[in-house]
Design a protein that fits this description.
Layout lengths: L1 H15 L17 E2 L12 H27 L5 H19 L3 E2 L7 H16 L1
Antiparallel strand pairs: 1-2
């Protein structure tokens, strides 16, 4: 029974990352919510279009990883753990690269990295 609940939670957690892929409002508008398509680090080295592509690929990977691990868990296959671990590390990496460019304020997204860290600890250390 726990696998159904946790699988559904992983799927929902993955779907939340849609907010970084679509504009709720344009970044120039007041009250914009999501990712501004910039990076505090990558903007220094890469073209704006490349940064946008990197971000979109990372956010889609995170979304697909958590969604996929939830689906795989629902069918009771053990590979959900490795998928979840990869999605969690990818999520942390994306949050590190794009943290300062999340709106309205990055601190409102703190639950994302916390969930990723808890997943990593639970699956790698506690098992």
């Amino acid at each position: 029974m726990w696998h159904i609940l946790f699988g559904i939670l992983l799927i929902l957690h993955g779907l939340i990352f849609i907010m970084f892929l679509v504009y709720v409002k344009l970044p120039e508008d007041e009250g914009y919510f999501g990712w501004s398509r910039k990076s505090w680090l990558l903007d220094k080295f890469l073209d704006e279009k490349i940064v946008k592509i990197v971000g979109i690929v990372l956010w889609i990977s995170v979304l697909g990883g958590f969604f996929g691990s939830g689906v795989v868990l629902l069918v009771k296959h053990e590979s959900w753990r490795i998928i979840d671990i990869i999605a969690s590390f990818t999520s942390l990496f994306a949050f590190i690269l794009f943290w300062s460019e999340l709106n309205p304020k990055p601190i409102k997204f703190i639950l994302g990295p916390i969930i990723a860290i808890v997943n990593i600890i639970a699956l790698l250390i506690v098992k």
